[in-house]
Amino acid sequence: MRIRWCAPMAVQTACMVLGIVTPCLAQAMPGIIPQPVKMAIQDGHFHISSDTRVAASGDARQETTKLIDFLAPAMGLRLALLDQPTPDSNLIQLLLVSPPDNTLGEEGYELQVTPQSIRIRANKPAGLFNAIQSLRQLLPPAIFSPQKAEQTQWSVPCVRITDAPRFGWRGLLIDPARHFIPVQDVKHFLDTMAIHKFNRLQIHLTDDCGWRIEIRKHPELTQIGSRMDFTEMQSAAPAAANSRFGGFYTQEDIRDLVRYAARLHIMLIPEIEMPAHTGAAIVSCPQLGLYPQKLAALSSDQRWKAHEWVLAPRPESVAFMSEVLAEVMELFPSPYIHIGGDEANIVHWKQSDEMQDLIRQLGLKDETELHSWFIRQLDAFLTRHGRRLVGWDEILQGGLAPGAVVMSWRGQEGGITAAKAGHAVVMAPTSHTYFDFYQGPAASEPRAIGGDLPLEKVFVFEPIPPVLHAGQAKLILGGQGQLWGEFIPNPKHRDYMAYPRAAALAEILWSPKADRTIEQFLPRLKDHLKRLDAAQVHYRPLK
Ligand code: ACM
pTM of this prediction? Predict the structure, then answer.
């Protein structure tokens, strides 16, 4: 069999460089997103049919079942699963390697397709899963259809792929606080993330206009705090309380989502915002506010517009939020718990005699130190429980526990400072990762929050700032795209804002940086959009 090595980032060029004069098979090769690290394209195809068997043993079996599940709807058949590989051909084999292959890490894999068999090797189940995502993309796009497709030939081109991600944190954020996102829509979003090998979903569960997670110890948080959304808050005539949409996740819903995401090797990371963006909590539990008596005297409907948008960081509020986080930790196995920490209007603390007294009692200098004190209390609580606090870059002021992770959103400066101080960092700058920004001229786009973030700009995002030396660069865990929900009221619109920008981000976070160009990305993206069509993802068409 002739083997044509084609460098992934410049397939045609590589064929020329290596002196291969026959037309490169890359033209017929489906473009994979994110681009694998190394692909050697070979002649021939493997044909998947009802006679094809899948073989795996031990922990690999679970991933194999997922492969069968992924293929079944469009093919209209379930492939048979064997315990042991047979010497026959027409076999797909998944294998966990032991001892581990250091080049593959936790999430990498090898995928070899010949006319006789498909062999997948990885150190860990996550690697097998990632290989399955590449294999799906090697099949005709119709394989992504949730119903039986008209396609009858399911051919996979022969190829050898060796692949592993550049970053371990490849995330997106969704915001059910602003507009509630029903469980089935979160699942749809997770399914599309998996196609792109994303592995973190931050879920912004609480904000001024909604508290979206059931907390048994404080049922008022959802009884009152879930009954509003951004649209209603903006409206001059908000809907009557008993006809509002609102919504929240029961604890059983959360368990269901955590399980669903884990099956796709996606870690669900909860975000419980504090001390600002806590309006819904304050409306529900006036004791958290700066002026509890004033709020408690009002009906809950009147309270929505009468609070200070930032809680009072009393020790009692620390205790309250610790109780909330205790239940959150029971539900989310994630080692990371995000507590927000951004955009606190501490002028309100300056104007409060009680907060000024508190600052003096705690021996602090000012409101900024009070903010840090509050964050550090929650940091200590989470650390005691074996979890790592994550917060937006405002949490940096005043010092943090060594395990805390900083999410840099106001540019990359916060991330640079954090990495220099020895903290792990996720880069999530507005400039390149805010997918609630416009992606084309505002006049021809649906209403967005503002900004300007076309696809091409996402594609030039570089999570590692050049000012960091190699040791500091290792602290950059990866990056994350944000889909804040103020102007994202439904799943179709969420798809529109996310894709194809998130496809570009997936490539930035997975594929090697060298040789990356938009010119070689766009033709692959065109192939890829056919997959998203089949998967019923309502992306923004290329203009
Ligand atoms: C943020 O966008 N306020 C983190």
Answer: 0.94
